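Subject: for your reference before the review

Hello V.,

The reviewers asked for a structural picture of the protein, and I figured it would be easier to keep everything in one thread rather than splitting it across files. Below is the amino acid sequence we used in the manuscript, unchanged from the supplementary table.
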Amino acid sequence: MKNVRVEPFKVIGISVRTTNENGQAAKDIPLLWEKMINEDMLNSIPGKIDNTIYSIYTDYEKDHTKPYTTVLGCQVNNLDNIPEGMVGYSFDGGNYIKFTTKGDISKDLVINEWIKIWEMDLNRTFTADFEVYGEKAQNPLDAEIDIFIAVK
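And here is what came back from the structure prediction:
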């Protein structure tokens, strides 16, 4: 893990309001991924910078134990043209701690990293945390995923 500064960025994608309570997010978030893949939403995002997928956790009611919004999408140049059924978000950036996890995505790679993060005392801001699925995440058996946690 290392401290990094994230510049402001904009994303267009799809979203769901969910919570970690009673395992709800473990149902909602995979369904969001399924929708993005099955409906080929990646190719419907206008003005995207590249095909890197961002899984963003924002609009926290309080912290990771309360409801929040998950947004799956791509970075874009602007939010001028948001397709019907999609959402646009603008993030301020700021101070983050970057975690990198490597391995088989199907073996709970990402959630296991989150469980470790939830147990850490990181002085989180709960503004917008996100995962980055770039080129190194293309092989699901040997993926590398970065997780960024907003901190004070």
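For the response letter, the relevant points are probably these. The mean pLDDT is 96. Helices lie at 24-38, 109-119.

Happy to draft the paragraph if you're swamped.

O.
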